[in-house]
Design goal:
It contains six helices and six strands. The protein is an alpha/beta fold. It has one domain: Rossmann fold (3-Layer(aba) Sandwich). It binds guanosine-5'-triphosphate and magnesium ion (MG).
């Protein structure tokens, strides 16, 4: 089945020749359908939230420039190109292509849906197959739905140690911790890149 590449108005070309000087990283959002991947992306890049579910068909991306501090406290420019694939996309090869070359993954589950938590290992394993070294961050999303919460913090913390990942409890609806996830990701990637760089002032 052919997959459509969707581009919304907010999306910019990450390779646009706008004179950006800094590190560029590609991050992939992973997780089951309806967990809130697109909502997290839109909250972060456009500061909006839509209650209405619109399934992502194929993949979309958005970019965001983040000012990040290095270990000496100097401000560095980091451009994140954040890719969002519909959780319904079941084609293994397509998922592999999407993950290939990613600098990091943010894997999302919905705290009101235990089955989305149960699927986390699958997402993690398939990412690790393609990107053995890249950092992983976990989002336990929809924490605003306190009455409907079914997955408490403890299993999330277990995932954190199994995956050796950062763990965040987020709400795309209220915005809780959303920017923290992406800033942490940018910071980790910058520090890794600087470690590997001969010229740390680049
Ligand atoms: N209450 C609440 N609802 C949320 C939150 N995040 C997403 N939603 C809702 O959950 C539904 C699914 O959100 P999406 O962001 O479209 O989910 P997705 O993971 O991109 O889904 P696919 O594109 O099918 O993979 C929508 O109705 C959103 O409004 C949240 O933090 N809190
Ligand atoms: Mg989506």
């Amino acid at each position: 089945m052919a997959q459509r590449i969707e581009r919304t108005n907010s999306i910019q070309d990450p390779d646009a020749a706008d004179g950006f000087q800094g590190y560029k990283f590609r991050i992939v959002l992973l997780g089951e359908a309806m967990v809130g991947k697109t909502s997290l992306l839109r909250r972060y890049t456009e500061n909006i939230f839509n209650e209405e579910y619109k399934q992502t068909i194929g993949t979309t991306f958005a970019t965001k420039d983040v000012e990040t501090r290095d270990t000496q406290g100097n401000v560095r420019q980091v451009r994140l190109s954040i890719w969002d694939m519909g959780g319904q996309s079941t084609y293994r090869e397509l998922r592999r292509q999407y993950m290939k070359g990613a600098s990091a993954a943010i894997i999302v589950y919905d705290v009101t849906k235990p089955e989305t938590f149960m699927a986390m290992n699958n997402w993690f394993e398939s990412f690790r197959e393609v990107c053995p070294e890249a950092p992983v961050l976990i989002c336990a999303n929809k924490i605003d739905l306190t009455d409907k919460r079914m997955v408490p913090q403890e299993p999330g913390l277990m995932l954190r140690s199994w995956f050796q990942a950062e763990y965040y409890e987020t709400s795309a609806k209220t915005g809780t911790a959303v920017a923290d996830v992406f800033s942490k990701c940018a910071e980790k990637l910058l520090l890794n890149a600087l470690k590997g760089s001969k010229n740390p002032l680049t």
